[in-house]
């Protein structure tokens, strides 16, 4: 069953800078889909278009039959998503616990329920209780990612988006976060979209991979087929990610 | 020709910017009258503006009052009109110096801080995160600051008026050898209710202007450290200029000049 359907999506800035060029992509219910690409290829813009934060120039994005363009069903559309942002995007003025509680407050839980769900989610992502009352600036990047994941999961989304989940983290913490994401996807069965340039993350999390290049999808398929897919850019991206770099090209 | 083209482009960009600020201000003001309200944020901003700006406003006001008394005395002495010092100090402070100095000091402290805070929230995707949590960033970030600006500025100006008058009183009675009783008497007799009210209305308007410009520059700051730096500078400069322009317009409105 199709969960998210990108229908020939284009995005142009200032009428001339075309960042997304006719994106057509269908994501299935419960699938873990990776969007791979170089820096500046339009991955983050694609994510913001999907979330409705940036309006698309043409085409449509449909999630469970609801269009991103349908203003009447905007809240229902947005309610389907949660995002784990690149830097966590925890609110500086709130403690870790308050960050999760604040998210829960927006979906009309009472204060007591908010507190118990928030604590439960924070413990589920492996944070100690002594972290709960700390502010984001007082904890490490890995802990911030975990807290942000707890906040995202607390919203009980149907589609979760991970934006560069391991960027800025050391390899060990990155690995821990990746495992946490994999367990989350397996445990909840929700549709996951991971935006990254890191092939290792794709190998670890992907059911399917789409490779984005200069605003259009070069190839979509299983990660294991990337090295022999027949697309020059995708194979080059694969080789470069594996450390086989041809500097002349 | 290229000079005219540059001038035209600059003028159009300026008009576009003014239009954007106006629309932003209208949106912010409209949201002030409709729920949901984020009470915790409102209280936090009330404290930020009302309490933390108190020391700089107080220090500015006391020295403004002292120097006003001194200069007025020196000027009035040329026409043997020294007795006008108390009246000039109290009217000057309540009508003009209190609101304008407080407005400029709070603009320097709060507009820049608001622009930097919202600008860095934009860079770190916290504003996008708000949207994904179904929270309108205008209601969460702008409305509490507008409410705090509009309500706390009159309070600050009232304090500035009192402290400034006390500064004038101190200089007049200790340095200029005015009799305490007659100085107080002249102060009370010179002061009219419209002087205080006009100052407090000005304060509210300045509070709105300095918060909305801080929010606007933060919301539309460029990314990166330079972008946030430009946003804070832009917020303080534009808020200070707008305060001076609004001050003239409100003075003309209140006193029918």
Share in β-strands of chain A: 25-35%
How far apart are the termini of chain A?
A: 40 Å
Shape type of chain B = elongated
Q: Structural class of the secondary elements of chain B?
A: mainly alpha
- What's the gyration radius of chain B in Å? 21 Å
Q: In words, what does this structure look like?
A:
The complex is a heterodimer of chains A (249) and B (257). Chain A has 249 residues and is α/β, with parallel strands linked by helices. Chain A has a domain at 1-31 and 42-80 and 193-249: 3-Layer(aba) Sandwich (Rossmann fold). Chain A contains eight helices and ten strands. In chain A, strand 7 (159-163), helix 6 (171-188) and strand 8 (191-196) form a beta-alpha-beta unit. In chain A, helix 4 (111-124) packs across helix 5. The longest helix of chain A has 18 residues, at 171-188. The mean pLDDT of chain A is 89. Chain B is an all-alpha fold. Chain B has one domain. Helix content of chain B is 86%, strand content 0%. Chain B has nine helices and no strands. The two termini of chain B are 42 Å apart. The interface between A and B is medium-sized, with 22 and 12 residues.
């Amino acid at each position: 069953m199709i969960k998210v359907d990108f229908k020939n999506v284009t995005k142009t800035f200032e009428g001339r800078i075309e960042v997304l060029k006719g994106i057509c992509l269908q994501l299935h219910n419960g699938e873990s889909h990776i969007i791979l690409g170089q820096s500046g290829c339009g991955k983050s813009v694609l994510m913001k278009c999907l979330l409705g934060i940036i309006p698309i120039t043409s085409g449509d994005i449909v999630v469970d039959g609801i269009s991103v363009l349908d203003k009447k069903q905007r809240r229902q559309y947005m309610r389907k998503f949660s995002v784990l942002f690149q830097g966590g995007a925890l609110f500086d003025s709130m403690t870790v616990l308050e960050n999760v509680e604040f998210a829960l407050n927006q979906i009309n839980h009472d204060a007591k329920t908010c507190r118990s769900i928030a604590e439960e989610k924070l413990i589920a992502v492996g944070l100690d209780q002594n972290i709960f009352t700390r502010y984001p600036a007082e904890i490490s990047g890995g802990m911030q990612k975990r807290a942000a994941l707890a906040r995202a999961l607390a919203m009980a989304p149907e589609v979760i988006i991970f934006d560069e989940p391991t960027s800025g983290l050391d390899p060990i913490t990155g690995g821990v976060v990746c495992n946490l994401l994999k367990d989350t996807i397996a445990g909840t069965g929700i549709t996951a979209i991971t935006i990254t340039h890191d092939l290792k993350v794709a190998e670890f999390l992907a059911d399917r991979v789409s490779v984005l290049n200069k605003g259009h999808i070069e190839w979509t398929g299983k990660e294991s087929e990337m090295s022999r897919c027949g697309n020059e850019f995708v194979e080059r991206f694969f080789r470069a990610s594996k450390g086989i770099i041809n500097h002349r090209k | 020709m290229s000079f005219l083209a540059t001038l035209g482009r600059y003028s159009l960009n300026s008009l576009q910017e003014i239009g954007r600020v106006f629309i932003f201000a209208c949106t912010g003001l409209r949201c002030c009258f409709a729920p949901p309200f984020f009470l915790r944020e409102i209280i936090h901003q009330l404290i930020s503006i009302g309490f933390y700006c108190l020391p700089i406003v107080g220090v500015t006001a006391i020295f403004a009052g002292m120097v006003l008394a001194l200069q007025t005395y020196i000027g009035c002495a040329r026409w043997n009109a020294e007795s006008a010092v108390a009246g000039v100090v109290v009217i000057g402070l309540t009508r003009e110096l209190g609101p304008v100095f407080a407005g400029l000091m709070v603009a320097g402290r709060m507009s820049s801080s608001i622009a930097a805070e919202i600008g860095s929230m934009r860079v770190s995707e916290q504003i996008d995160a708000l949207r994904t949590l179904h929270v309108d960033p205008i209601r969460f970030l702008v409305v509490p600051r507008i409410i705090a600006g509009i309500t706390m500025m009159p309070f600050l100006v009232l304090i500035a008026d009192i402290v400034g008058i006390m500064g004038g009183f101190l200089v007049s009675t200790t340095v200029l050898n005015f009799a305490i009783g007659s100085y107080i008497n002249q102060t009370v007799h010179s002061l009219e209710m419209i002087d205080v009210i006009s100052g407090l209305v000005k304060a509210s308007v300045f509070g709105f202007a300095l918060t909305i410009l801080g929010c606007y520059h933060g919301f539309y700051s460029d990314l990166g450290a330079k972008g946030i730096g430009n946003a804070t500078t832009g917020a303080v400069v534009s808020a200070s200029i707008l305060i001076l322009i609004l001050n003239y317009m409100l003075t003309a409105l209140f006193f029918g000049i």
